[in-house]
Automatic annotation (TrEMBL):
<dbReference type="GO" id="GO:0006221">
    <property type="term" value="P:pyrimidine nucleotide biosynthetic process"/>
</dbReference>
<dbReference type="GO" id="GO:0046872">
    <property type="term" value="F:metal ion binding"/>
</dbReference>
<dbReference type="Pfam" id="PF01948">
    <property type="entry name" value="PyrI"/>
</dbReference>
<dbReference type="Pfam" id="PF02748">
    <property type="entry name" value="PyrI_C"/>
</dbReference>
<dbReference type="InterPro" id="IPR020545">
    <property type="entry name" value="Asp_carbamoyltransf_reg_N"/>
</dbReference>
<dbReference type="InterPro" id="IPR036793">
    <property type="entry name" value="Asp_carbatrfase_reg_N_sf"/>
</dbReference>
<dbReference type="InterPro" id="IPR036792">
    <property type="entry name" value="Asp_carbatrfase_reg_C_sf"/>
</dbReference>
<keyword id="KW-0665">Pyrimidine biosynthesis</keyword>
<dbReference type="InterPro" id="IPR002801">
    <property type="entry name" value="Asp_carbamoylTrfase_reg"/>
</dbReference>
<dbReference type="GO" id="GO:0006207">
    <property type="term" value="P:'de novo' pyrimidine nucleobase biosynthetic process"/>
</dbReference>
<dbReference type="InterPro" id="IPR020542">
    <property type="entry name" value="Asp_carbamoyltrfase_reg_C"/>
</dbReference>
<keyword id="KW-0862">Zinc</keyword>
<keyword id="KW-0479">Metal-binding</keyword>
<protein>
    <submittedName>
        <fullName>Aspartate carbamoyltransferase regulatory subunit</fullName>
    </submittedName>
</protein>
<feature type="domain" description="Aspartate carbamoyltransferase regulatory subunit N-terminal">
    <location>
        <begin position="2"/>
        <end position="89"/>
    </location>
</feature>
<feature type="domain" description="Aspartate carbamoyltransferase regulatory subunit C-terminal">
    <location>
        <begin position="94"/>
        <end position="136"/>
    </location>
</feature>
<dbReference type="GO" id="GO:0009347">
    <property type="term" value="C:aspartate carbamoyltransferase complex"/>
</dbReference>
Length: 141
């Protein structure tokens, strides 16, 4: 796989510079067998600098996870060296086991096997709250 172009796969574009590793981990890209290229600090007219992730296979990406991290990211599906689809992301209504509730009194702290579920409480400001205790998520760093 060359860095500039791929024949087939997925290009995750317009990632805020420095965020690519967080996305790599959140999407479990380390578990893939295909090639994954992380290109950091690419010059962008719109953003100054951005990161790009290229995956040499069309896998099922969890778009909710991406939208939760940054809804401005774009996902391009490439086939035969051409972009056949551009997916726009938005903040998902809820995320399951992406963020974790840090409230020690929350039921998710007591019942370890419970899913951590956050619901979008304020779309305008992108604020999520735990469905059990209303706490905002402590984002994993
Ligand atoms: Zn909670």
């Amino acid at each position: 796989m060359t860095v500039d172009s791929i024949e087939k796969g997925i290009v995750i574009d317009h990632i805020k510079a420095g965020k690519s590793m967080e996305i790599y981990q959140a999407l479990n890209l380390d578990e893939l067998d295909c090639s994954v290229a992380i290109i950091k600090n690419v010059k962008s007219n719109k953003m100054g600098f951005k990161d790009i992730i290229k995956i040499s296979d069309t896998i099922d990406l969890n778009l909710d996870v991406l939208g939760y991290i940054d809804p401005n990211i774009t996902v391009n599906i490439i086939e035969d060296g051409r972009r056949i689809e551009k997916k726009r992301l938005e903040l998902p209504e809820k995320v399951v086991n992406v963020a974790h509730c840090k409230n020690p009194r929350c039921i998710t702290s007591i019942e370890q096997e419970l899913d951590h579920v956050f619901r979008l409480a304020d779309r305008e400001r992108g604020i999520y709250r735990c469905i059990y205790c209303d706490q905002k998520p402590g984002k994993e760093q």
